[in-house]
Amino acid sequence: MKLLDESDSKMFAVIGLGNPGPKYSRHRHNVGFMTLDALADDLGAAWSPIRNEAITCATEYANRKLILIKPQTFMNLSGKAVNKIISNRNINYGSLIVIHDELDINFGRVRIKVGGGDGGHRGVRSISDSIRFRDFIRIRLGIGRPPEGMTAEAFVLSSFQLYEGPIVKRLIDLGIQATKLIVTDGIERARNTINTIKDDETGPSTVQ
Length: 208
Hints:
By secondary structure, the protein is α/β, with parallel strands linked by helices. It has helices at residues 31-42, 78-88, 122-131, 152-156, 165-185, 187-194, 199-202; strands spanning 11-16, 54-61, 64-71, 96-102, 110-114, 137-142. Strands 2-3-1-4-6-5 form a 6-stranded mixed beta sheet, sandwiched between helices. α5 packs antiparallel against α6 (187-194). The longest helix is centred in the last third of the chain and has 21 residues, at 165-185. The chain starts with 10 loop residues before the first strand and ends in a 6-residue tail after the last helix.
């Protein structure tokens, strides 16, 4: 599979990470799913039934084709579904955008990154291991660190609280904005826009 510069790409695969089923739908670990659902709604696109262990949605934005992908393999095996779909559709690795939760970013902030370590995120690691490539585009949605006495695993598998709703909405909106900017303006311009948004423009970094 050939790598293309982002400006040459005619199709982007946008993967939201999460765990399938209503039990997990509001978990912090599922904010990637939430963002992809909101993006599909924003673009007026409909999801297809499960195939190749994922739910997909074909749509367009700014004259570029997008395929939205929600793996249904559970987080730790996300790469299994992603590998099947991008191989079958011959999608370039340079056009792969992964949207996921990030503990090491303040709640409400978003950062765009290309490649790098997985930071312990098993969904990101699964994709890297499955396609044997790690320099894909990542939209990292900050959920912040767990409170004292709570493990990281328990925190990511806890649900957002009602009072956190406005920041969650802003987080999802920024994730959509980041995706669109990558498609229209390229990675560097998108990163310069999204990564410089300050805490006071997204809401407080912690919620009491």
